[in-house]
Design goal:
The protein has 117 residues and is an alpha+beta fold. The chain is built from four helices and four strands; from the N terminus they run αβββααβα. The chain is globular and about 40 Å long.
């Protein structure tokens, strides 16, 4: 089993638990250059809010989009957009990635704005 398969197995396990709880999920994905975050219904049928380093607002203000500062900016943006929609509590779906570095920075900045998970 390689790293990608292991990560996808962890992600599937998390998503099944979130589906069982029937709560909104904050789904995070990362590549070497960008960060993406979405708030999705528990069954995955609808995306309610999204933010990424490719958004025009962030693209112009960031020097590089693949670092911790960019991830924190995405976390702040997703939390602000969720608050405008009236979403206060979500389940954190880190897509099988380990909770450190950019994933941790995104989560902490979203919590600072007031998003609960």
């Amino acid at each position: 089993m390689n790293k990608k398969v292991s990560r996808l197995r962890r992600a599937k396990r998390t998503r099944m638990k979130i589906k069982e709880l029937e709560t909104l999920r904050l789904c995070v994905n990362k590549t070497s250059k960008h960060m993406y975050a979405q708030i999705i219904t528990y069954d995955g049928a609808q995306t309610l809010v999204s933010a990424s380093t490719l958004d025009k607002e962030l693209k112009t203000s960031l020097k590089y989009s693949g670092n911790i500062e960019a991830a924190a900016a995405v976390g702040k943006m997703i939390a602000e957009r969720a608050m405008k929609q009236g979403i206060k509590q979500v389940a954190f779906d880190r897509s099988g990635f380990l909770y450190h570095g950019r994933i941790k920075a995104l989560a902490e900045s979203a919590r600072e704005i007031g998003l609960e998970f």
